[in-house]
């Protein structure tokens, strides 16, 4: 029996690195919903308008990306079975993004694509480079190579391509550095981020964590590799078609490839769920599984867009497509997984040194479960009403939906900051 | 449950202590979860070594589980020097969960 004499396999990423990402993401979600409520009419116009650009980047960078960066700094060691290389690089990644994102969002909101936007975009790229270097060095020093780590690392490469193209697009507004207008590159920029970054990362992490939380006997690495190949083929074919300016109907090829990968991943999660040992599934995991199902919604909307574009251009469907991605799929998985990861990180910080000295609260007791469930219900109502408001270009529905989304963000922030500011309650529990 | 030991009598006491140590995520004790592999009682040096595993390497809850196991053992063997060491050979899998653990997770 080989014994790890120094117990090196329990040295985790410092909580000081991880927690700021969670707090920042929660506040970004709140700001995004306030921006939505104060700019609902922007959702009845063409999608390329300043408030929509500002909201999209708050959601994509401040909300989705920041929380994934935070959680992955904590979870990447589990995936690669090795330590995170550097806490300093993780700090740098946070600081660069934390300054860069509001600069870029402000510039979009004011639609002043000058120095402020450039500085914001450069800082965001520095953040991604720090993250990429950290992950690469962590993998390099780890002995384990597996499909989950490959998913995660490839996704960060696509994130870098997305932010680098984003920087060029910002620059292109003032100086002609690209062959065409920045607006022409939007779909490429968006899909590198949505498919390359979010989809690959979420499948990479989700395929490791969801079966782990379910204690599932199901394992199918071959299927996950197939999903990986299909997504990359889909995205690369999309990039080639974009530069060749092919007929719009040909875009069905990447959609079918990526749609197939989503169905296969959904099937993977279904079998993990069916073959689980742990019969009682908590709400956080249920919401995460719901988000897997929601992945197919943007694919369906995209197919509708292609069909509509063949006949008539529909800006509202494009708006709905973006909404179902950022407020549907990505938000759902974050609403679930936050409360499956953050309480444990904080619990470990507060109780690991005094564990065993008395009865401690369960990590699930660090947040208010009733508010968590209410959060889920309010969110679903808001998501459906706002989505209908976009399709029907109805400002009243958009306003009602926006209020529900804002309440969702407030409830979410309440629980997140309740966890972040949790203090040890050992004595209280000791006396029970 | 198949825990290797060189002292069955003291091992009983150790297992009783380790039953109190929970995996906070699964809410099941580490004995029924199958995380405890071996107890080694060194009479001449008063060292007690517990060899255990985690459900995954770099488990985010690993530090607190090891600390809890150390504290629980120290309370049962106050005169001895406790060392809790990790082993990932063999790696943990679901078949290591005891019947009682399986039954708990099935409800």
UniProtKB/TrEMBL annotation, chain A:
Gene3D superfamilies: Cytochrome c oxidase-like, subunit I domain. It comes from the Bacteria. The chain crosses the membrane at residues 21-42, 54-76, 88-109, 115-137, 149-174, 194-215, 224-244, 250-273, 285-312, 318-339, 371-392, 398-421. Keywords: Membrane, Transmembrane, Transmembrane helix. The keyword Ribonucleoprotein does not apply. This is Cytochrome C oxidase subunit I. It comes from Gelidibacter salicanalis.
TrEMBL record, chain B:
It comes from the Bacteria. This is Metal-sulfur cluster assembly factor. The lineage of its organism: Bacteria, Pseudomonadati, Bacteroidota, Flavobacteriia, Flavobacteriales. It comes from Gelidibacter salicanalis. Residues 16-84 form the MIP18 family-like domain.
């Amino acid at each position: 029996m080989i014994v790890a004499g120094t117990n090196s396999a329990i040295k985790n990423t410092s909580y000081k690195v991880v927690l700021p990402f969670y707090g920042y993401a929660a506040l970004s979600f709140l700001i995004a919903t306030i921006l939505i409520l104060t700019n609902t009419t922007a959702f009845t116009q063409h999608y390329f308008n300043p408030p929509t650009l500002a909201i999209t980047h708050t959601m994509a960078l401040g909300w989705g990306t920041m929380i994934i960066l935070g959680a992955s700094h904590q979870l990447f060691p589990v995936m690669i079975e090795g330590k995170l290389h550097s806490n300093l690089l993780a700090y740098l990644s946070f600081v660069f993004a934390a300054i860069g994102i509001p600069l870029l969002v402000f510039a979009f909101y004011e639609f002043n694509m000058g120095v402020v936007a450039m500085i914001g975009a450069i800082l965001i790229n520095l953040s991604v480079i720090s993250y990429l270097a950290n992950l690469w060095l962590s993998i390099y020093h780890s002995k384990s190579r597996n499909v989950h780590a490959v998913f995660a690392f490839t996704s960060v490469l696509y994130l870098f391509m997305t932010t680098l193209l984003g920087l060029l697009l910002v620059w292109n507004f003032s100086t002609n550095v690209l062959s065409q207008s920045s607006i022409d590159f939007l779909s490429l920029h968006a899909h590198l981020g949505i498919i390359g970054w979010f989809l690959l990362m979420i499948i990479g992490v989700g395929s490791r964590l969801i079966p782990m939380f379910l204690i599932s006997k199901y394992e199918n690495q071959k299927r996950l590799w197939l999903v990986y190949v299909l997504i990359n083929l889909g995205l690369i074919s999309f990039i080639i078609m974009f530069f060749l300016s092919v007929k719009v109907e040909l875009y069905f090829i990447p959609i079918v490839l990526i749609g197939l990968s989503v169905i296969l991943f959904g099937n993977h999660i279904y079998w993990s769920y069916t073959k689980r040992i742990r019969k009682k599934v908590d709400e956080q995991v249920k919401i995460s599984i719901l988000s897997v199902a929601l992945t197919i919604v943007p694919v369906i909307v995209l197919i509708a867009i292609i069909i509509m574009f063949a006949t008539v251009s529909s800006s509202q469907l494009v708006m709905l497509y973006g909404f179902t991605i950022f407020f549907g799929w990505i938000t759902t998985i974050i609403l679930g997984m936050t409360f499956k990861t953050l309480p444990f990180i904080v619990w470990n910080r507060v109780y690991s040194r005094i564990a065993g000295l008395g009865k401690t609260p369960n990590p699930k007791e660090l947040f208010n479960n009733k508010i968590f469930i209410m959060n889920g219900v309010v969110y679903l109502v808001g998501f459906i009403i706002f989505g209908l408001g976009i399709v029907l270009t109805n400002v009243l529905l958009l306003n009602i939906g926006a209020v529900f989304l804002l309440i969702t963000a407030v409830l979410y922030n309440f629980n997140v900051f309740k966890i972040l500011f949790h203090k040890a309650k050992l004595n209280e529990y000791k006396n029970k | 449950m198949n825990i290797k030991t060189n002292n069955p009598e003291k091992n009983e006491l150790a297992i009783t202590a380790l039953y109190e140590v929970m995996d906070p995520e699964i809410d099941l004790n580490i004995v029924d979860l199958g995380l405890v592999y071996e107890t080694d009682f060194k009479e001449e040096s008063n060292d007690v070594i517990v060899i255990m595993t985690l459900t995954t390497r770099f488990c985010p809850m690993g530090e607190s589980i090891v600390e809890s196991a150390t504290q629980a053992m120290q309370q049962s063997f106050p005169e001895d020097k406790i060392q809790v060491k990790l082993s990932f050979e063999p790696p943990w899998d679901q078949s290591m969960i005891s019947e009682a653990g399986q039954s708990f997770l099935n409800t």
